[in-house]
Description:
- The complex is a heterodimer of chains A (317) and B (281).
- Chain A is α/β, with parallel strands linked by helices.
- Chain A is 38% helix and 20% strand.
- Chain A is built from 12 helices and 14 strands.
- In chain A, helix 1 runs parallel beside helix 7 (147-159).
- The longest helix of chain A is centred in the first third of the chain and has 15 residues, at 12-26.
- The radius of gyration of chain A is 19 Å and the shape is globular.
- Chain B has helices at residues 4-25, 30-35, 37-47, 72-81, 123-136, 155-166, 187-191, 196-202, 216-228, 264-272; strands spanning 63-66, 143-148, 172-178, 181-182, 185-186, 206-210, 236-241.
- The model of chain B has no long low-confidence stretch (mean pLDDT 97).
- The interface between A and B is large, with 32 and 39 residues.
Amino acid sequence: MKKYTYTETKDTRSGFGDGLLEAAQKNENVVGLCADLTGSLKMNAFENEFPERFFQVGISEANMMSMAAGMTIGGKIPFTGTFANFATSRVYDQVRQSIAYSNKNVKICASHAGLTLGEDGATHQVLEDLGMMKMLPGMVVINPCDYNQTKAATLAIAEYEGPVYLRFGRPKMPVFTPDNQEFKIGEAVMLNEGVDVTILATGHLVWEAIEAGHILADMGIDAEVINIHTIKPLDADAILKSVGKTGCVVTAEEHQMNGGLGDSVAQLLARKNPTPLEMVAVNDSFGESGVPALLMEKYGLTRTDIVKSVETVMKRK
Amino acid sequence: MANIQKLEQTVSQVRRDIVRMVHANNSGHPGGSLGCTEFLVALYFEIMKHDSSFNMDGKGEDLFFLSNGHISPVFYSVLAHSGYFDVAELATFRKIDSRLQGHPTTHEGLPGVRMASGSLGQGMSVAVGAAETKRLNGDDRIVYSLHGDGELQEGQIWEAAMYASAKKVDNLICTVDLNGQQIDGSTDEVMNMGSLEAKFTAFGFDVLVEKEGNNMTKVVAALEEAKSRTGNGKPICILLHTEMGNGVDYMMGSHKWHGVAPNDEELAIALAQNEETLGDY
């Protein structure tokens, strides 16, 4: 079993900020829009280096989304920045009509997703965004796991032609994926091979899945751990191959069970290879204020919860 | 100097197309389409520099965004007569497998359409975005948009308006089709918006009011005047008073023809009032 180590923790939003700056240095068509959250989205470095390509729209997310769609006409590649809640549920119709249906090359970049936003509470802790975005035809949905991967994903989506939703967050997380990695949209990353159970994790839950794998190894369970950084298009081949070997699956995500990664995997397996599946996700509930780690514990999104789900699903094989 | 007579001949043909398209499907929005016919004909046949070979980016061209997408019949007819696609395709309006969807979209690749619209209130933001890109590209052409007056009840319009004036987007001409009607009745009855001239002025626009939006000479003059005022640090708004259903006497001035198609008899009356000038599709 591969041991993942890290020397520092960083927030995924900083990976976005640094990736945006680099993407802008590489391509003069990259522009950024922000709805009064420049510091929170780590867009300051981009703004400072390219002030003429930075568009402060104030607290008007609906205007920002449709404006970004309009900016593509003439060849710009707009990256919009706001909190995940305001990038999805607040502006769903703008994203649907002006960006997705109109097939515009807009990158919807969303920070502070999920419970790990912490103390601000449920008004800001969107847990439905992956579901909303993946339902839109043609929308690519990405949820990277650490700083390095978020930076790589930001660079990759600048090269990709079409609408993308990129989700990241606020807390500092272990940086364990390689620096300067190549990010392939829609291609799952094998983290640890195993034969007893498949653990499919996305975003902040990927590190928890790796840690769960070690706990399971101590229990004599050989878990396969895969990072599903792209929710849509889902890497069906990688998932079916793994499941064909292990015969059972646990999904893990910082999202509602309805509409999330687990839901996508269930849909795939039900059609292609019905397999016992357990989901580590928020179960039809809003979040609340609190320290992120305690919230993750209360809502059942830790390595311990992954281990418990593995034990449950293995009995169903 | 504009050839007003020729523009009016085009208007007559476009009005025939509108009522025929809506009648053929027993669905669509004739009222607002008929009211905006002079405006769209003036824009495409006199005012804008545009290329009907159509490139999505429209660099070096003036751009138009229809925010009130339900008046698609007038938009489609004007695009077809401008050469963006064959007028025969107007016969496919609202039918299955058509590029002429009920509300305009880029999804089916119809030349001339750069953004889907239909869900109201988004078009001014889109136009502002396109105008910002023109400024970044050093492209000095103008971005035009059209909005219904009822549509101004959508909050996003005012977000876009606030942005346009704060950021001095002065290559933008937003026209409001002021016909005073919306689905449930007059705009005053449904949601009295007070003085739109005062509102747009307060939001930092350079506002022009044209009382005769169905008079071609006046419409061309208003658009020329608006063009001459671009580049002065303010977005421009034309409040264009029109008559819903203009050109078809029994439809004029009533919200009842917002989204209702004429029957066979009514179609015949409408066609008799609008001469065939360029050939029916």
